[in-house]
Amino acid sequence: MSKKKVSFQGLKGAYSDLVCRELYKDYKTLPCKTFQDTLEAVSCGQAKFAIIPVENNIAGRVADMHFLLENIKLKIVAEHYQKVEHHLMTLEGIELNKVKKVYSHIHALSQCKNNIKKLKLVPLNYMDTAGAAKYINESEEKDIAAIASKLASEIYGLKILKKNFEDKKDNITRFLIFSKNSIKLDINKRIITSIVFNTKNKAASLYNALGGFAKNNINLTRLESFFVNKDFKQFSFIIDVESHPDLKNFKNALYVLKKYSTKVRILGYYPASTFRK
Question: Model confidence over 185-211: pLDDT tens digits?
């Protein structure tokens, strides 16, 4: 049944799959081709939750997710920060000194570029990390390896040549969890609320729109902009604030935000991750 499935983008063994298994141990994972498909799996009832990566402390924000967030009808119900551990892997019987080429997602290759250079490997881009591991499993080449998760090595029967192959050990990705309905939360707990809005095309509109949060003593933890329809003429903004929508000071701040905006929508509210200090 849909209530026992959680969707993610990528093949089995992807880092999103790893997060699904850690957070929802009693759920089956549902691999999807795209982020859009991942979210639609929840909308149409195939899955109860969707898990999407939105930003990484080294690679930055995930491309195109902002455009999906602007139009999504689902609610953000949780956040999760995952430490990313890349491993260099290949087929059983192939030793490290025989490997000449390494496949992985462009971000994984970038996050391991120093170690790749040290081993004098040729980096080759693949659609995703788990896909690269699957390719190695199915290939007859004897001089190739993949950079992927430990889970991927287990699923595709690969041996790990180098553990923790990433250049920096504090590699963290933030994931958001989506569902059809919001979850009731205690307003006295530390809550994050995510909002998307468009400001009016007037001087100081953004400054004035956000002023209500400062006046009402609400901490802004995230502010990002992106072009609407990619036409370079109008911006949309996504903010995360530390407050619950039912609190009076939040309602006051939201009133000010709407006053200086053409569109305002709450994407969801959820418990602040314990990763946040």
Answer: 999 999 999 999 999 888 899 999 999
